[in-house]
Amino acid sequence: MAERLSARQAIAALTGATPAGAPAAFTELELPAPKDTAAPDGPLGWPGYDESRARAARRTGEDESVVCGTARVGATEAVLISFEFGFLGGSLGERTGDRLEAAYTLARERRLPVVSLIATGGSRMQEGMRALLQLQRVARQSALTRAAGLPQIAVVRDPTTGGGWATLGAGADVVLALPGAQIGFAGSRVRPPDADPYAYTAEAQLTAGHIDAVVRPEALGHTVGHWLTLLTGGPGGGAVTAADPPAALGDAEPPATGWDAVSLARDPERPRAEAYLDAYFTSRAAVNGDRCGGVDPGTLCGFGVHDGRTVAYAAQCGTATLPAGYRTAARLIRLADRLGLPVLTLVDTPGAANDAEAERAGAGAAIADLFAAVTTARVPVTSLLIGEGGSGGALALAAPGNTWATPDSYFSVIAPEPATAILKRPPEEIRTTAAQLKLRPQDLLSLGVIRGIVPLARS
Question: Which DSSP string do the residues of 23-91 spell out, in sequence order?
Answer without folding.
Answer: -TT-EEPP-PPPTTTTSTTTTTT-TTHHHHHHHHHHHHS-SSSEEEEEEEETTEEEEEEEE-TTTGGG-
